[in-house]
Amino acid sequence: MTALLSLESVSKRFTRRATVEECLLSLLGRPMPPRSVHAVDQVSLSIGEGEVVGLVGESGCGKSTLGRIAAGLIVPDGGSALLDGRPVAELRSGRVEKRTTAVQMVFQDPFASLNPRMKVGEAIAEGPLAHGLWPAAERSERVAATLADVGLDPSYAARFPHQFSGGQRARIGIARALAMNPRVVVADEALAALDVSIQAQVLNTFMDLRARRGIAWLFISHDLGVVGHLADRVAIMYLGRIVEFGPAEAVFAAPAHPYTRGLIEAVPRLERRRFGFHPVRGEIPSPLSPPSGCHFHPRCPHAVRRCREEKPTPRQIDTGRMVACHFDLA
Ligand SMILES: Nc1ncnc2c1ncn2[C@@H]1O[C@H](COP(=O)(O)OP(=O)(O)OP(=O)(O)O)[C@@H](O)[C@H]1O
Hints:
The chain is an alpha/beta fold.
């Protein structure tokens, strides 16, 4: 499949300020803890037209940062994010000056960014009117059609944010993104706050939209079970790096990375045979001081000395499948 959106070896570091306590302790001779986080470390990923790619990993592994780079909201320190071969964001003095409207983002709580006094119809129309994507005269019809697209009654346009349930809010978040007529939507934990039954309904909306509108999705979640229902291909991320990537069915049927195996073992809802893999043990290490070599080695049941010393180079194991592990664990 030809890539519509491609991330090519993108990296992003964040530096935080030292706290007052850290400064005082350093005056007393205590070493300063690291202040720089390598949130995304040379990640390459592509999404084809109308494709759903799931991006999975534990909290803090860099999923949101990667999603924001894909949407042009964050400038990577290195590498590039391209839509149809063109940068998703134009920069001036290292800051985003202009970004494409063709990649939109949906967040876990889309209402956090909404003015509580603004009617939902106004909130949906705000972006497309500002970008000249809708003729002002067609505003009401366009809002109504967008609400209908996500399974909501067009009369909801006149209501205020607080009048909606969690599932409806999630749909309105999707509607705001759809109003921009995107080719790719980055959904960042868009279902995480919802009850399981509501999640299933909103998932159906995603699938329906994909079938009708041919939109590609980068679907970010810590929940492999949810991603398993939706994604064509899946990327597994661990401490800033993609450790496994491939067609979702193939990855779930025969996961090649010990971390993927551990995640699958931990998902009760996946209606798959149990593999007898080791569940992921221990806590995710601090991204401020990640382990040497393969970042996963302290939690890996197969780790040997080489894993502590050498960063695994991603390698192809099958058509369209990649794993970053020194060993063939099959
Ligand atoms: N603006 C920022 N400034 C400083 N550090 C940041 C910033 N944004 C993210 N980070 C750090 O980068 C790392 C990756 O964060 P990110 O939010 O991308 O991970 P995530 O996998 O999406 O986590 P979660 O699921 O908890 O949102 C974390 O250590 C986080 O603390």
